[in-house]
Amino acid sequence: MGLYADTYRRSLEDPEGFWAEAAEDVVWQKRWDRVLDNDNEPFTRWFVGGKLNTCYNAVDRHVDEGRGAQAAVIYDSPVTDTIITISYAALRDQVAAFAGVLLKYGVGYGDRVIIYMPMIPETVIAMLACARIGAVHSVVFGGFAANELAKRIEDATPKLVVSASCGIEPGRVVVYKPLLDGAIEASAHKPDTCIIVQRPMLEAPLIEGRDVEWTAAHTDSTPSDCVEVDANDPVYILYTSGTTGVPKGVVRPTGGHLVALKWSMKNIYGVDPGEVYWAASDVGWVVGHSYIVYAPLFQGCTTILYEGKPVGTPDAGAFWRVIAQHKVSCMFTAPTAMRAIKKEDPQGKLLAQYDMSHFNSQFLAGERCDPDTLHWTEKMLKVPVIDHWWQTETGWPIASNCIGIECLAIKPGSPTAAVPGWRIEVLDPECNPVTVGEIGAISIRLPLPPGALPTLWRNDDRFVESYMAAYPGYYQTGDAGVIDKEGYLHVMSRTDDIINVAGHRLSTGGMEQVLASHQDVAECAVLGVADALKGQVPLGFLVLKDGVNRPDAEIVADVVRMVRQEIGPVASFRQAAVVKRLPKTRSGKILRGIIQSIADCQDYQMPATIDDPVILDEIAATLKALGYAGG
Ligand code: COA
Ligand code: AMP
């Protein structure tokens, strides 16, 4: 039996032994009493009774163990022309100082702190400072609008918000402060304090009595040490798109998160302490939490905090410049980024300028990696290119080629096989395993391994209903796919309304709610259509109320603006069409899947229950006019 197969089998046959062994790699203030408590499934708890601190394991332990002078974080920001290296010792001091600031402003153990920030060092410092004092952070991606931020403030009820005056996108400054003020105004919950990093490109006006500037906030505060927290205390809440406009607050348990992430660095990514690891994502997403901040620091690596894009900052050689300059050995990004680079530099002329001799592996996730992108990336980089599959909920990869254990043969279009700890099964609607090679709902047999979500923030019912009810005894991933006869997993599509735009997860249901709120719209549908760069982009269909006689183009422009204002620019909602009717079943269900198949020129089966098949011809004509459906 190969090493991977052997490790995988061990992880399932003896999960308690397997994860107890992995937990030895973490510094505990008190060891656990029980490795696994699954008495109240699906509310699984790992390392019950254990006490530890996330920040200690990410920062202080490395100083204590002699890595104080090593770079912990390299902030590389082509958009501001800045590179700053922060050693582990300096990071400890800055985090301890900000932890003291949080305490000064009344934030304590268990309190929530919202972090609405661009990709700057203060973001990482704020996250670690929360963990240091046992406060629970919730980072909100900067590309979300005030309304989305408001929903998160209302649900997490933070005592304090950390934000910045602005973010920098190529060609524009994203003014954060009005978004923050708008969100607080819209939210029923009001934080006591907002700490604002004033960036030199734009000073934000501060509200007296509530807002305080980052440096000024440090006055009269005392650096704080790491406190002891329970292994099952939440280290953070991260909101993700659900099937409605209301985001789900995924809870991350402290102990399981630490153990699983540390284990993943060596076993999945094959990365040792001291190496330079780079996840080119944003700290607002789970990839950023797990693989920009926590896992590389748990492992004693140097992590890169990159404030830039794959192209345009300044060119399609930006990623290769960072890899060469900082001697990155392992990188992680979304396939979209590779497609963007390929589009501008298909021959890799810019790549040829850089010394890539330290570079060992390229990981991709966030969306399906199409074989063309995989082949191109392999041809360019000449290192293993590993597609791996996971979700905000799981916090770390479910399926991957675990190159730190054994590099298996790469199969394009597949993230290889289950990572140790995850029992993946493909089920039919009756909860039976499908025949090998058949498509079904990709599900994980309970209990989930350490690090996965134990519940949703203050919403056990929604946790059960969203993930655990459809397939009793399993976690429903929301993805559909196949396990082939060689045991390789293929993740094909979502089973719900979630779409993946440039590796960003978005709910079409949430966008439909915005469209439906337009005064002239009677009915609407939003679906994801294939896009050569972003994988998918949203496309809206509008049916207008009787008697509306404004030009269609005006109404389309309205809804495009509304989605940008209410969800944010990240939704990339740029196209909509006015139609007379939407295709529906006789019971009134809109056939979004069929519209999507027509747009993507894919075969589909005409449902027997369709109300009026002629509508599909009208929809196809509209799609052609928009440049889809072979138009
Ligand atoms: N704050 C504010 N606005 C943001 C933002 C942020 N942090 N991130 C993105 N936006 C805005 C962009 O400026 C853009 O606005 P625009 O409509 O005014 O142009 C919009 O949101 C869409 O952004 P994006 O999806 O990034 O598209 P793009 O056309 O600007 O860039 C790529 C395309 C491929 C270069 C870009 O999507 C990319 O770098 N993808 C990598 C994917 C990735 O990191 N995924 C994370 C999961 S691993
Ligand atoms: P998020 O929670 O934002 O990380 O998005 C998770 C979703 O992105 C998954 O449920 C999948 O639909 C999709 N996804 C992530 N990685 C992959 C991958 N490697 N292949 C296919 N889909 C992926």
Outline:
With 631 residues, this protein is of the alpha/beta class.
Characterise the protein shown here.
It is built from 18 helices and 31 strands. The chain has a 7-stranded mixed β-sheet, sandwiched between helices. With 631 residues, it is an alpha/beta fold. 32% of the residues lie in helices and 24% in strands. The chain is globular. The longest helix is centred in the N-terminal third of the chain and has 17 residues. Bound molecules: coenzyme A (COA) and adenosine monophosphate. Adenosine monophosphate binds next to strand 25 and strand 26.
Distance between the termini: 52 Å
Largest sheet: 7 strands, mixed
Shape: globular
Counted beta strands: 31
Uncertain residue segments: none
Class from helix and strand fractions: alpha/beta
Widest β-sheet, arrangement of strands: 5-4-17-16-18-19-20
Rg on CA atoms, Å: 24 Å
Mean of pLDDT: 96
Please indicate the percent range of residues in DSSP E strands (runs of 2 or more): 15-25%
Associated small molecules: coenzyme A, adenosine monophosphate
In helices, the fraction of residues equals 25-40%
* Helical run tally: 18
Helices and strands in order, then pairings?
Layout: H1 3-13, H2 15-23, E1 34-37, E2 45-48, E3 51-52, H3 54-67, E4 71-77, E5 82-87, H4 88-104, E6 112-116, H5 121-133, E7 136-140, H6 146-156, E8 160-164, E9 166-169, E10 172-175, H7 176-186, E11 193-197, E12 211-213, H8 214-217, E13 229-230, E14 234-240, E15 248-253, H9 254-267, E16 276-279, H10 286-298, E17 302-306, H11 318-326, E18 328-333, H12 335-344, E19 361-364, H13 371-381, E20 385-387, E21 399-400, E22 417-418, E23 424-427, E24 440-445, H14 460-468, E25 474-483, E26 489-494, E27 498-501, E28 504-507, H15 508-516, E29 521-531, E30 535-544, H16 552-566, E31 575-578, H17 592-599, H18 614-625
Parallel strand pairs: 4-17, 6-7, 6-8, 8-11, 11-12, 16-17, 16-18, 18-19, 19-20, 30-31
Antiparallel strand pairs: 1-2, 3-13, 4-5, 9-10, 14-15, 21-22, 23-24, 24-25, 25-26, 27-28, 29-30
The chain binds coenzyme A and adenosine monophosphate.
The site of adenosine monophosphate has 20 residues, from strand 25 and strand 26.
